[in-house]
Here is the input.
Amino acid sequence: MKEKDTLPSDPDILEELIAEDQRTEIVTVMRLSFEKLSDKCKMILKRRILEGCEYQDIAKDMGVVSGTVRNNILRCREELLKEIVSNCTIFPELHHLVKIGRRMLMEKEVGRKSNRTKRKQ
Here is the structure.
């Protein structure tokens, strides 16, 4: 497989890029990573991503406003990404995912710093 800096968004292309033997390892990394999340993050991500629930529905069930749910989802996705990056070191053959994950985390941190600077001005 040719190493990429970014993953394509089209699932069919992504499936072609990932070798069959790596799929099992990717699923294992995802499961390990998901299990390490807080119960709150597990619930929110499960409801939003796996069940396809709307922000308003999740907010109603949690007793919060939808903006809080949006913020929680962003934080939980970042937490999941960090876990994926740390768990990918278990499988050296998934080094390209670690590279992509680290780049995404760095870009998010740079974006946050930029936003803080803009707010201060």
